[in-house]
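I hope you will forgive my troubling you with a question about protein structure. The matter concerns a single protein, recorded as an amino acid sequence and a row of backbone structure tokens. Please examine both parts with care and let me know of anything in them that strikes you as inconsistent. Here, with my thanks, is the record as I have it:
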Amino acid sequence: MTLASSVQPRALGLARYRGEFPIFQSSVYLNTCSLGALGERSRRKVAEFLDLWQSRGASAWYDVWWEALTDLRARYGRIVNASAGEIGLAPSISVALSAVAESLDYKKRPKVVITSLDFPTVAYQWLAKVRSGVELVIVESPDRISVPVEAIARAVDDRTALVVTSHVYFTTGAIQDIKRVAQVAHVHGALCLIDAYQSVGQIPVDVQDAGVDALVAGGLKWLLGGPGIVFLYVRAEVARRLQPGIAGWFGQREQFAFDPRALTFHDDARRFELGTPALAAVYAQLGGLEYIEEIGVPAIREATAALTEDLIASVRAAGFKPKVAAEPERRSAIVMIPMPDPAASVRHLAAGGIIADSRPGHVRFSPFFYNVQDDHVRATERLASQPAH
């Protein structure tokens, strides 16, 4: 019995949702890590928003739309085991990171520790502050797959304000032990912020168990909500003591006082919110969350892990050498395949109806619960058929 045939029954159960994602009618979609496939439930929720906009205009704010924001904060919170009051909304990870970065005092603790495998947005946030005295320390990866927590620990000291790293590294799909990272930060009195954009939705995340101080994730990828909506988790006691250095009217406790002489932040994570949320994105995310909540992240993880192992076996059998973590339990649904010209390979795949993505030196496949074994077969065969350069 092949690996593919042994894992397929565990994943097939969730393939029943495949018909709700129309992209599979014309394509093999293996690119959830760039953008989750559009589901019919998200389309219907966006149509609901547009109908309200058309029929009620701004009056929908006073009940329906305001309640939609409250609902989204609560549902985001449940996904990561946080209270609604620990969740703030933002339009992008960059904005969410900025809200935290601008609330820290770097005078006594000028150091921020990140890793070389984190998405560049993380580095850019603090590189922009180097001229203000921030010291950015980048911990290198010895194998270019993951970063040992021990290496992060060696970079942290009593001058460290913040340790920032990824739950899943976008470069390799390797899963980081964020609980240990948080412990390393806290030993020296530093805070720990986790970029979980690559993990929340495909891998169970429990912020209480992990002990992290802040975490960012959102709709673009595994939460099936599309671009324009993310969340910022900030642990309640941390949120209360951080004073935002950037502000908008949604972060104000007396929002509708319209008083330009008073700046009074919310007492919870909403203090980090800025401007009016994009409601179309909010509604798309509410639709996407219906799938995640209905299936449950543990079941998604089980099915997607099986699909990932099947995909890895498939590409290895075709002679490729995927760049993934050595241990299956440390692999997420991101499979990196070294290629001499990844962009050309992605174009070749697209010409055969297979949607994937590239990152420097690699083609990236990212299966999700709506994929099936035949997707892997077709993608592997198409990649192997590319003419040699």
